[in-house]
Design goal:
This protein is mainly alpha-helical. Helix content is 51%, strand content 6%.
Amino acid sequence: MTTPSLQIAVDRYVRALEVSQRLIALHPRTAGGSGNHAALAPAIALSTIGAFEGFCEEFLANLLLLNGHGYAHVAKAVGKMNNPTPRQFATALTAEVPKVKTSAGNGYSLQVWNIPGVNQRPATETIGWSDILTRADGWMEVRHCLSHGLVSGWRSEVWPAPLKGTGAVAARDVLRAKAGGKHSMGLTGALSCARLYYYPAQHLANLVAGFVGQQLSWDSAPDYALKKAD
């Protein structure tokens, strides 16, 4: 039986993120129409969120096993994590390591692309923990719309609102506004999505590892640079 390891969960997460890195490398990052390259944006978002989901499940499972919980308890706890966001991951970790609640996001900030209005150009901005969690929630709605075929994601479209009564952040709230009530993702949106899931995952995992006396290595992890290197 394999010994539970938080580092193994990190290593597998980083491996899963290799796909999104290669997708990003395929994009020309030039102004104007990007043709078939436009399909890379939704693929990057789906890939990074999917990798995050797998990481959440494995990291939490290994944490619970390390803390002496049985497999039945682990299966029940992990089974509750349906399409987890960074907010839900933090909640699940807090249930096992209460110090996470008061430590997560303290002094933490992240640089992302902003959310441009109609006829506005994207620009980078730095946001705090609360905004990070809210925008990540919105990108989960983006994933739902893409996964269920409600939109294609590679062009400007009308994005549907969340199901009535769910209280979820709308997908269109994190997307670039276009004329006629449409919104688009673009590579800038996909890069922000990747950063909004990967970096909080790293932050939370490092916190937990510190609380249980471990140290994690992210040496091979991506940085999801907002701009192409010169």
